[in-house]
Specification:
This protein is an all-alpha fold. Helix content is 72%, strand content 0%. It is built from nine helices and no strands. The longest helix is centred in the middle third of the chain and has 29 residues, at 119-147.
């Protein structure tokens, strides 16, 4: 029996986040959310206007709880290519540690189902992709300052390419049972990045 909202707002969002991640924003129903969070429908509506507002809170929480602990090393001052590779390795390891199929990335999963008219949700997803691109670009600018291999425009293009590649990696993870296959993809991506930047293999 779902209980009234005696849990904190954060607990509700954390449980809803897992539900959205596993079921998907468009597929999930309020009945699903009641079942997965253990909070009554009326109590959910007392905190959030509806499913979409709750989902947006989950996307904010996803940045805080899932993205920052791993991607923060790429955004740190002085980060290098090795930090990008470690970020990807950490992401693969966390997927492997979960029971059942790899769930992929919440943002990527949602992008694949996004209603083009849903501008509010699109802004949350764009925040994530822009965050990745900005972090990658800062690292590439730092490396390129040592090699001078690329123009500013080419550095920007490489950052966009890397974001697209990483999003593709997490998308493919949903149908990959072997983390080593993902690691081979990461090795290839890092080799391509090093070659473009003129950085020798470690």
């Amino acid at each position: 029996m779902p209980r009234p909202i005696s849990q904190s707002r954060t607990d509700l969002v954390d449980n809803a986040l897992v539900a959205f991640w596993n079921i998907g924003f468009h597929a999930i129903s309020m009945d699903d959310l009641v079942r997965e969070t253990g909070v009554s429908r009326g109590s959910i509506y007392s905190v959030f206007k509806g499913k979409r507002e709750l989902f947006h809170a989950c996307l904010d929480r996803y940045q805080e709880a899932a993205v920052t602990p791993k991607f923060g090393q790429v955004e740190a001052e002085g980060a290098r290519l090795s930090d990008i590779k470690q970020f990807l390795e950490d992401g693969i390891a966390s997927q492997e540690a979960l029971d059942g199929p790899m769930p992929g990335c919440l943002v990527v999963n949602t992008l694949a189902q996004l209603d083009p008219a849903d501008e509010d949700t699109k802004r949350y997803l764009e925040f994530h992709t822009n965050r990745l691109t900005k972090g990658f670009r800062a690292v590439f600018e730092r490396e390129n300052a040592l090699t001078g291999a690329l123009s500013d425009q080419e550095v920007a293009a490489l950052a966009e390419f890397t974001t697209t590649s990483v999003l593709g990696l997490w998308s493919n993870s949903r149908k990959i049972a072997d983390g080593d296959e993902m690691r081979r993809y990461v090795d290839m991506l890092m080799s391509l990045i090093r070659a473009k930047l003129g950085v020798e293999c470690p």
